[in-house]
Amino acid sequence: MRIRPATPADRPAVEAVVASAFDEPREGRVVQLLRRLDDSAATRADLVAVDADDAPDVVGHVRLSRAWVDARSALVDVLVLSPLSVAPHRQGDGIGTRLVQAALEMAADLGAPAVFLEGGWDYYGKRGFQGAEPLGFERPSLRIPAPAFQVALLAAYKPGIAGRLVYPEAFWSTDTVGLRDPDLHRIEQRAAGRA
Question: In angstroms, rounded to a whole number, what is the distance separating the alpha carbons of residues 152 and 124?
């Protein structure tokens, strides 16, 4: 398997992988998020996983987008890792792990001090992320369960970078920030039982 930057020709395959990974129709919210991030110039990096150099099929995808931390001293540019998608028939093959690792390397190359996400703490916690709130960061929405709000601090991070994470407009206009009930309630119950 190879991880490489996505090209414009990959877009239909990326959208198909994202839709299938999130069990949504092709015009679902997460695909709409991708499109609006592109349209608003918030996309900073797109990586795809393919089986071989000449393989036409995309089996995984990860996106890094611009966001900000509203710190006391300045508005700090950071990145958000979202979405991470692996074709359902290839989940469990380590593709997601490799995409997360490649995204963090790309983020470091871009000079980002931190990469944020909202997702499963049991998954991302093993892949370089940690809870963001104990480090002084605030969730952009209370609909993100606290354990799911995570950050990976990179070499460019400096003490004092703390505050509320501010998502770009595309996350809000597609309603892809956090969860809504009944899913939110179910995840909060799961998080409460993990201690």
Answer: 10
